[in-house]
Each structure stands twice: as C-alpha cells, then as structure tokens.
Specification:
By secondary structure, the protein is an alpha+beta fold. The protein is globular and about 45 Å long. The structure holds zinc ion.
C-alpha cells in the first residue's frame, strides 16, 4: 500500500465527471491506497478524483466510536437509486478543502447500488453520517464539491483561501 497525494481545490480534475470502472480487479491497488490515504489524513471518505484518478470509485468508513472496529467500504460505480424526502444537516468538510467546514442539507437517507472489488452487485440503504458521506463522495465523481452548495460569495472566499494555501505549500 502507498499514500497518494490528495488534490487541493481549485484543480480542474476535481471539476471533471469521472469515468465508470469497467474491470473492478484493475482498481484493487488503487482502492487499498485510497483507504490508507483516507485513514492517514484522517478522513471518513475519499473519492478517486481526489487522488487524481478520474474513475468512479470511492472509499469510506464513518465509524466514529472510539475503539470500534473499522468498517472500510469500497464502492465502485455507485449510484443513488432512492433518496428520502426527509433532509438532514451536517457540518461537512473535505480533504480537498482543508480546514473549511459548512452546514450542508442533503436527503437523510439514500439507497445506493454499486459493484464490489470482487465484481458483485451490491445495494444498501444508508442513514445518518453514512448517508451524508456517500452523497458527498458521489458528488466528487460528478465533479461537484460541497462548496458548490454555498452562496457564490462564500464559495469565492473559500477558493481564494485555498489558492493561498496551495501557494504557501508550494513554497514550503
Ligand atoms: Zn470531499
């Protein structure tokens, strides 16, 4: 396994619609690296475009309880097939937009279908933090960031901050 560099917004690859994965066995190494990168960050979700790979693949683990066993999930070609009318608000953050947090409203429950690393068709309903996380990550596969839900002025302010952060990191 290896850590991958996480792209920081703004980056054109974070705005691009990712391509479906045709052969799950080809992304096994990528999925392992992404999980390692996510846990290392640390974060609860990571989508392939965030490490510069424009494929429809995401990893997540939203277990928060101290001492609970990890529950790593790899979702290939995930699709939202149902969303609840009921909404939920969570303070979201993103590994590609460090240190920025904002309340975002999304459907409280979603049903997702995806392909596993073994090539099996899966489906499950997600609620709570898992629902928010999976929707946030699927947005990444469609070139969408959580700040796209914010008012333009706030979004521009965040983007300027990130440009500055990238400049500082490049100099360091
Ligand atoms: Zn994100």
């Amino acid at each position: 396994m290896a850590l991958r560099d996480i792209l920081i917004h703004p980056d054109p690859r974070l705005k691009t619609v990712a391509d479906p994965v045709s052969d799950p066995s080809e992304v096994k190494k990528l999925a392992e690296d992404m999980l390692e990168t996510m846990y290392h960050a640390p974060g609860i979700g990571l989508a392939a475009p965030q490490v510069g790979v424009l494929k429809r693949l995401l990893v997540m683990d939203c277990i928060k309880e101290e001492g609970a066993p990890p529950q790593p999930m790899v979702l290939i070609n995930p699709e939202i097939v149902w969303s609840s009318e009921e909404k939920n608000v969570y303070e979201e953050g993103c590994l590609s937009i460090p240190e920025i947090y904002n309340d975002i409203e999304r459907p409280a429950e979603v049903e997702i279908t995806w392909t596993s690393l073994e090539g099996a068709e899966q489906s499950a309903k997600f609620g709570g933090l898992w629902a928010t996380c999976v929707q946030h990550e699927i947005d990444h596969l469609d070139g969408k960031l959580f700040i796209d839900y914010l008012k333009p002025l706030r979004r521009q302010m965040i983007t300027r901050k990130m440009v500055k952060l990238k400049r500082e990191r490049a100099r360091a």
